[in-house]
Amino acid sequence: MARTALVTGGTRGIGAAISVALREAGYSVAANYCGNDEAASRFEAETGIPVFKWSVASYEACVAGLAKVEAQLGPVEILVNNAGITRDGMFHRITPEQWREVIDTNLSGVFNMTHPVWPGMRERGFGRVIIISSINGQKGQMGQVNYAAAKAGDLGFTRALSLEGARAGITVNAITPGYIATDMVMAVPEKVREGIIAQIPVGRLGEASEIARCVLFLASDDAGFITGATLAANGGQYMS
Ligand code: NDP
Question: Domain Ketoreductase, which positions (predicted)?
Fold first, then answer.
């Protein structure tokens, strides 16, 4: 029987590419989203992948959302924590609200979603938790103290939790994409984007499908010996 995968923020950008790739590889897929109903409805109509609306920033909403997904598709065996936001600003200008929003979604959101999924994975003796962190959580980035802190936190989360899942058949891994051509990056002014591309050794932005293929590998049985790892997909921009 097909394994069930839940992709947070799975209706747009990198998440949409991940949802589609998992579906094409034979998984039964649920795509979560938060606010953009129009994009989610379009995605559902085009792909046939069911969409589920809740905010990963709320623990209670994640518990309720997971229950709905599992009632429709069965136990979630692959969890892709992809949902993420930016609220950029130089540190001396960012507000506590900008700090909290990014931490709540990009770091606490990973806890909120993984925690309710975890007991079932332990009971069944199988699970794949994949976290989409960021190159900027590794190297830092001006104007992104909140985002870099959250994404670096995701890497600590990945390493610590991987130890707890290891004997239970659950792998926990992170992917750190470099700059990928999605709404998040295309929203940056063109001049800034040109500057970004100039810093990427391969000379181009990444494609969402390239991150999706990393997820497919980490979700597969072939990746059973890989846990606690950080898979960098950044065109050579940062090597740790
Ligand atoms: P997009 O802005 O294109 O899409 C973000 C997705 O996350 C949307 O589906 C959005 O839902 C969803 N989302 C946002 N907040 C929440 C929330 N609170 N609860 C549930 N879903 C939410 O982002 P990208 O595809 O560019 O980024 C995806 C991930 O990859 C993020 O974690 C990002 O930090 C990371 N990343 C991106 C890079 C890039 O270059 N693009 C580089 C490195 C990392 P809705 O449609 O309803 O708004």
Answer: 3-178
